[in-house]
Design goal:
Length: 216
């Protein structure tokens, strides 16, 4: 059996949400969504084990891992990446990444994704049929309002817009539907999250050092 582990993280100002899924080719075998305020990395593996048990699988059945690599919050993206790298390196299996904005949009024909970047800013991107039409960026409130006006499409994300309905995505299904957009990681230890923020507060330690500290 070919099983993949999908790990997705979302962090907002009020809560931290995570999703873990297992699937065989295009069939979702098990998935879970949970909130965690502290000890995020410690809580992820037990949730993964629960999903494996539900699907009747073990860690040895997982043969690849796919994860969002950003943009997003420093804590959420960093921890998600670290856990995925540890799992991929210990099992000696492939690791793939995909943009958080693509995961929100899925394969819908035209979607604008806005994610809270704090400080009245938003990570923004326009996605058509699973493909980003331009590089992701960070915009101020005034800028992302203009962005929406110039990019027709539905709205997804966690930035409320008055008079606009936000569509709730199916993240685990989107992981499956977007397999053609997965980016293979050639060197697992060298993989780093994409924060888009320039502040030193959003820079991470060397990836190999982070992975080694969690693996020990």
């Amino acid at each position: 059996m070919r099983s993949q582990s999908d790990i997705w993280y979302k962090e907002s100002a009020s809560k931290i949400e995570k999703e873990v899924g297992l699937f065989d080719d295009t069939k979702l075998l098990a998935g879970t969504s949970f909130e965690c305020f502290k000890k995020q990395s410690e809580n992820l593996f037990p949730e993964l084990e629960k999903a494996l048990e539900k699907a009747g699988l073990t860690m040895q059945d997982i043969d690849q891992v796919v994860i969002t690599d950003g943009p997003g919050s420093y804590t959420g993206v960093r921890i998600a990446m670290t856990v995925a790298k540890v799992l991929a390196s210990q099992r000696q299996i492939p690791l793939y990444t995909i943009s958080t904005l693509q995961l929100y949009a899925g394969t819908a024909p035209a979607v604008n994704v806005l994610l809270d970047a704090r400080g009245h800013r938003a990570y923004a991107g326009h996605v058509e049929n699973g493909v980003l039409t331009e590089p992701e960026t960070i915009l101020t409130e005034a800028e992302y309002r203009k962005f929406l006006d110039s990019h027709p499409g539905s709205l997804m994300g966690d930035v409320p817009m008055e008079g606009t309905e936000t569509v709730q995505p199916d993240f685990l299904q989107n992981f499956i539907d977007l397999q053609a957009q997965w980016v293979p990681v050639k060197n697992v230890h060298a993989a780093v999250p994409r924060y888009l923020k320039e502040s030193d507060a959003y820079k991470t330690a060397p990836a190999a050092a982070v992975a080694e500290s969690h693996a020990g």
